[in-house]
From TrEMBL:
E.C. no: 2.7.7.9
Family: Belongs to the UDPGP type 1 family.
Pfam family of the protein (one): UDPGP
Listed Gene3D superfamilies: Hexapeptide repeat proteins, Spore Coat Polysaccharide Biosynthesis Protein SpsA, Chain A
One Gene Ontology term of the molecular function aspect: UTP:glucose-1-phosphate uridylyltransferase activity
The reaction(s) this protein catalyses: alpha-D-glucose 1-phosphate + UTP + H(+) = UDP-alpha-D-glucose + diphosphate
Protein name: UTP--glucose-1-phosphate uridylyltransferase
Annotated InterPro entries: Nucleotide-diphossugar_trans (IPR029044), Trimer_LpxA-like_sf (IPR011004), UDPGP_fam (IPR002618), UDPGP_trans (IPR016267)
Highest taxon above the source species: Eukaryota
GO BP annotations listed: UDP-alpha-D-glucose metabolic process
Keywords: Nucleotidyltransferase, Transferase
Organism: Sphenostylis stenocarpa
Length: 182
C-alpha cells in the first residue's frame, strides 16, 4: 500500500502572530485527545496549528510529499529513522541507496516497545533494515547488536518467554515465536 500522507509546512510572520495574539483574535478549536499515561487515563487538550491558517491574510499552503520529511510519532517511526535506512549528510536526511524498494518497510511494534525508554532498552543496536519489507515484533523480545532483518519478519514471543535475538543474527523471511525458531 502506498502511503499518500502529506504534511503542510507552516511558515508564519511572527509580527502577524503577535498582532493576532494581542487582539485576542486567535480563536482556536480545542481538540480533546484521550490518552493513557503510566496506566492513568488522561484527556490531552490540543490545538491544530494548521487550523490557524484561516486567521492570516494571504496565507497559502504547500503540500510536502512524504519523501521530504520523516515524522516520528511512534517508536516504529523511530526505528526507521535510527536504522541504516537513512543517514544524515550535511544536515540532510538521505535514504540509503542500497535499498531497492522505494517504499519504507511496514513496522508494527507491540506495546512492550511503546515507550521510548522501553524501546531503546530492547536494542543493543538498531538492526539493519535496508532489505526489510515488513516487521512485526510483540512480546518480551530483545535484540542483540549487529542484527540484520530482511524480507518479511515476524518475531512474536510466547507469553512468559523472554526471546533474545543474538548478536549478528540474520533473519530473512521468517516467523519466530520462541528460541527454538532462531
Amino acid at each position: 500500500m502506498v502511503n499518500e500522507f502529506k504534511s503542510i509546512e507552516k511558515w508564519v510572520n511572527l509580527n502577524a502572530v503577535k498582532r493576532l495574539v494581542e487582539a485576542d483574535a486567535l480563536k482556536m478549536e480545542i481538540i480533546p485527545n484521550p490518552k493513557e499515561v503510566d496506566g492513568i487515563k488522561v484527556l490531552q487538550l490540543e490545538t491544530a496549528a494548521g487550523a490557524a491558517i484561516r486567521f492570516f491574510d494571504k496565507a497559502i499552503g504547500i503540500n510536502v510529499p512524504r519523501s521530504r520529511f520523516l515524522p516520528v510519532k511512534a517508536t516504529s517511526d523511530l526505528l526507521l529513522v535510527q536504522s541504516d535506512l537513512y543517514t544524515l549528510e550535511d544536515g540532510f536526511v538521505t535514504r540509503n541507496k542500497a535499498r531497492a524498494n522505494p517504499e519504507n518497510p511496514s513496522i508494527e511494534l507491540g506495546p512492550e516497545f511503546k515507550k521510548v525508554s522501553n524501546f531503546l532498552g530492547r536494542f543493543k543496536s538498531i538492526p539493519s533494515i535496508v532489505e526489510l519489507d515488513s516487521l512485526k515484533v510483540a512480546g518480551d523480545v530483545w535484540f542483540g547488536a549487529g542484527v540484520i532483518l530482511k524480507g518479511k519478519v515476524s518475531i512474536v514471543a510466547k507469553p512468559d518467554v523472554k526471546l533474545e535475538i543474538p548478536d549478528g543474527a540474520v533473519i530473512a523471511d521468517k516467523e519466530i515465536n520462541g528460541p527454538e525458531d532462531l
